[in-house]
Each structure stands twice: as structure tokens, then as C-alpha cells.
Amino acid sequence: MMLSFFDQFMSPTYMGVPLIALAITLPWILYPAPTSRWVNNRLLTLQGWFINRLNQQIFLPINQGGHKWATLLTSLMIFLITLNILGLLPYTFTPTTQLSLNMAFAVPLWLATVIIGMRNQPTAALGHLLPEGTPTPLIPVLIIIETISLFIRPLALGVRLTANLTAGHLLIQLIATAAFVLLPMMPTVAILTATVLFLLTLLEVAVAMIQAYVFVLLLSLYLQENV
């Protein structure tokens, strides 16, 4: 039974070929393409309003040099939100439950922020490893601790996204199984369980959006330290 619960996180294959690449590529066709018309339809207007609000929230505290990342981080957030929400549909696969995929997003972007900081302002970038006013005996220990915390950042990004989505999917499957088993024996309890399942699904939609936002927000904070 435990294996069946975790089977949903296995990458589907067709004739031995993993379909995770297809699951990553297909969401792009759902986005409406901008037009050259002066007046857009409601969907494009809503999309533009959402992207503008997102850019204001994330890039307001960042100086002008970090605004070059706006297109990349905005696209990443919309992509993650789409993957997370589509993964809540029945008979679908959620690529962002794979730690390898999330680390593939987190490590290069985190490394790019570190390289930018080392290239543009090496003194300030290295200064983050030693807080101001540190007692002399604690300097070696704090440098080691801050260095470890620096390299843990991409791992924390990937694990946070993977763990939250995996836990939500498992909880939904457990409650759905309980409702299905209780239906012939205790219909009233099964209906209450199904109500809890519906509310949990709404919560998971919110979690899917929030986790994508937190992922990009933390990347923007790392960028803010280095530009």
C-alpha cells in the first residue's frame, strides 16, 4: 500500500522513454500569446496585470542592476505555478515533486547570483561571511558557519518546494482513499471526509502558488545581496 501511494511521484514512461520532458514542455502552450491589437482581451489583460504586480512586489527593493533578471524570474514563477497547479488535476504528473528538477532550477540561478556578487563587488560579497562586530575568537567559526549556510541555500530552495508539494499530494491521496473506503460502511463520515478533501484541495492550490512565489522571492533576495 505504501508503494502505491508513492507511485504517483514516479516519472511516467512510454516505451521506456521518460515523459517528464513532455510534462515540462506542454504547459507553455496554455499561455496566451500577446497580440499587436491596441485593446487586449480579458485573459491577456489579467495576465499583464498579474505580471506587473509580481514585478512590483519582487523587484521594488532591488536596484536597477537587478532588474535585468525580471524576465527570467517572472517566467520561472509563472512556469512553476502552472506545473504545480496542473499537477493537482487527476491522472497528471507533477514534475516539481522531483528534487532533481527543482535543484536544476535552484543551483544555476543561485550560482549566478554568487558569481555576479564576486565579479561586481567581491569585498561586499565576502563581507557577508563575517558579520560586523564579531569577536576575534569567533571569526573562524562564524566564517565556516556562514560558508556552509551559503552553500545550503540552493538545497533549501529545492527541498522546500519538493517537500511541500509531495506532502500535499500524499495527504490528498490518503484522505481520498479514506473517503472511498468509508463510503459503503459509513456514508456520513465519508461525506465529511470528502468535504475535508475539497477544502484541502483548495489549500493545495494556494500552496502551489505560494511555494512558487517563495522560490522566486528567495532567489530575488539572494540577487539583492549581490547587485
From TrEMBL:
It is found in: Mitochondrion inner membrane. Signal peptide: none annotated. Belongs to the ATPase A chain family. It catalyses: H(+)(in) = H(+)(out). One of its GO terms (cellular component) is mitochondrial inner membrane. CDD domains: ATP-synt_Fo_a_6 (cd00310). This is ATP synthase subunit a. The chain crosses the membrane at residues 12-31, 69-89, 101-118, 138-159, 171-199, 205-223. It is a multi-pass membrane protein.
